[in-house]
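Risk register update: the risk of archive-format incompatibility is retired. Evidence:
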Amino acid sequence: MRVVLDECIPRKAKHCLSGFLVSTVPEQGWAGLTNGKLLAAITGHFDFFVTVDRNLQFQQRIANLPFGIIIVAARSNRFEHLRPHIEQIPPLLVSSNLGKILSVP
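Archived output:
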C-alpha cells in the first residue's frame, strides 16, 4: 500500500509505518496546496492519506475518493503525541478500507 502523510505530520512518523511505501506531502512537492488540490493530487498516486485535520471531512467532498483517509485524533501533531496513534494505523492499511474515512482515536 502507498501512503502519504499530510504536511502537519512529522516526517519521522514514516518509520512507524515500515513495510509500506510511505511519503510525505512535502516530499511530493505538494506542500502548501489547499485541501481540495491536495486531494486531487493524491488521487491515482496513493492508496491512503494520513492527516490530523479533523475538519477535512466537513470541508471537502470526499465521499467518492478512490483512496482511504485516516484521521489521527492526537492531542497535538508533535511526534510524541502522534506516535501511539500512528502505530495503530498498519492494520487499517488494507484494500477493504480504500475509499473509506477512518479515525484513529
